[in-house]
Each structure stands twice: as C-alpha cells, then as structure tokens.
Fold:
Amino acid sequence: AKSLGKGRHVIYHERMDHRTAEQSRVAADLRGALDTDQLHLLYQPIVEMPGGELFGVEALIRWTHPQRGPIGPGLFIPAAERTGLIVPLGAWILEEACRQAVRWRQEMGDAAPRTVTVNVSARQLREAGFAGEVDAVLQRTGLPASVLTVEVTETAVFDGGTALDELKAIAALGVKIALDDFGTGHSSLGLLRTCPADILKVDKSFVDDVTENGEPAVIVAALLTISEGMRLRAVAEGVETAAQAAELHRLGYRYAQGYHYARPMPAEAINAYRPAGDGH
Ligand code: C2E
Ligand code: CA
Ligand code: CA
Ligand code: CA
Structure:
C-alpha cells in the first residue's frame, strides 16, 4: 500500500509539473501577445427587457494565438493572475474599453451604451494605487466616470488587504461597481453590507433555474427583492431562452445579458446592434 501511495504521489507530481509547464508556456506566450496584435476585446450587450434595447456592454477579452488559434479567457486569465501578468494586461483592457466607450459616444450619441463594464480580477484590485490608475485612464481618455462600470467577484473583494479600500476609492470617483456571479460565493449577502455596489449580476446558475419544471424561481426572486431594497440594478446573466427572459421579466427583472439577446461581438457590431424585437 505504501509503494502504491508513493507511486501515486509521483504521478500526481508529474501531472502538476506538466500543468505548471503548460501554464508558464501560456504565460510566456501571453506576454508576447500583449506587444503584438493577438489580443482584442469583444463586447456583449446588456439589454433592457422586454424589448432588448441596448443598455450597456461588458468587455470580454479574446486571444488569437498564432499557432494554437483562439484561446478562451477561462484558460489564460487564471494563468495571467498567477503570474501577475494580469496587472499590465488588465491595464490594457481598461484603457482599450474606455477608448472604445468614448468612440461610441462620438459615433452613436444618445444611442451609445450608457455603461461600459470591465472585469477586474482580484490581483488587480490588490495592487496598491489601482484606483489612481482608473482615475488616470479616465483623464487620458476623457470618459466620464459614470459611464464606466468596474465588475468584481466576491472573492476578489474578500481577497483581503486593501482590495475593499481600492474599491471604495474607485466608487468615490463616480465609477459604478458591479458584483459579478452574485450568489455563488460564500458570503454574498455580507458583502452587500460592506462593499459599495451599484449593480448586482445574478449568476447564470440561478437564471438557469427559472424555467426548471415546477421549481419556483425563489432565489432569483429574492435577489431582485434585495436589489430593489438596496437600490441596486439587478442584471440577469446568461439568459439563453425566450422562456427564461419572459419569466425574469414577469418576476420584475429589467436588465439581462445572454445569448438569447446577443453574443459577445466586435466593437463595430455594437454600432449596428438592434433588438430582435420579439417582445422577449
Ligand atoms: P464572466 O465575467 O462571468 O463573463 C460572462 C461569460 O459568460 C463570458 O464568457 C460570456 O461570453 C459568457 N456568456 C454570456 N452570455 C452567455 C449565455 O447566455 N450562455 C452561456 N453559456 N455563456 C454566456 P467568456 O467571454 O468566455 O469569459 C469567461 C470569463 O473569463 C469571464 O466570466 C471572466 O471571469 C473572465 N474574463 C473575460 N474577459 C475578461 C477580462 O477582460 N478581464 C478579466 N479579469 N477577466 C475576464
Ligand atoms: Ca463579468
Ligand atoms: Ca458573470
Ligand atoms: Ca463567471
């Protein structure tokens, strides 16, 4: 048994080494990608129900590797967080999204997205002076603070240290704060008492439940009640079907994001975005 245990131990370590090597390769390539033209942002509409009119957008990063082709953020963002590369990468994302937001305001006027949302990782929020950097980007690009939304997860805020202070400083600039994947963490409700939040993104896993057979949408309904009581905007994430959209709207939800309305798209496609106009 002992030798089996030992053998397993060795196999485990080899796998770990393999994964680590893979990750450092990804990280090394990503460092190069920052300097070349392999990274770009897509934007997914956040819409108003029931009509599907454009309310805002969320910036989502994409990487086209010269050899491997498209690599999803679910793979390389964690690697970038571990290596710290997310700090320069995140700075690039923030500035790129703010520049695009200014462009839309020039090109689309009143029809431009009213908010442009940027995902900010725990590692970025932990970086001292992050709020100052957000301020500097707003100054450089000329984007009004109220148009920017910084989206963070609960774990990022509770990462400890100065994360919460940075978030408060960002809110003090007039930037909106969204809590991502809300309800999936360990202390979501506690977070609402300490964290300055404007938007609550109700996680897809709860949205998936709203049309499950006979399963009342208790959590989704409760999250809306909490949002309204605390004057937060609730956004239902990952809405994939007309039935889900109809049920969410019936419950009182006004904002949604998901493939049912629109997939993440290039910036120019936002200029041309029109609601499908089927009522849901
Ligand atoms: P997230 O912030 O929760 O973003 C939502 C993810 O769900 C996106 O995946 C989006 O394409 C996808 N999605 C949207 N609507 C639907 C739907 O109706 N059905 C389904 N199944 N999926 C939907 P994506 O773009 O692959 O991003 C995955 C995650 O990677 C993001 O989750 C976020 O945590 C991270 N990420 C993406 N872009 C960035 C970025 O610029 N910075 C940081 N720090 N993280 C990012
Ligand atoms: Ca997000
Ligand atoms: Ca999310
Ligand atoms: Ca997520």
About this structure: The mean pLDDT is 89. Residues 181 surround calcium ion (ligand 4) (CB under 6 Å).
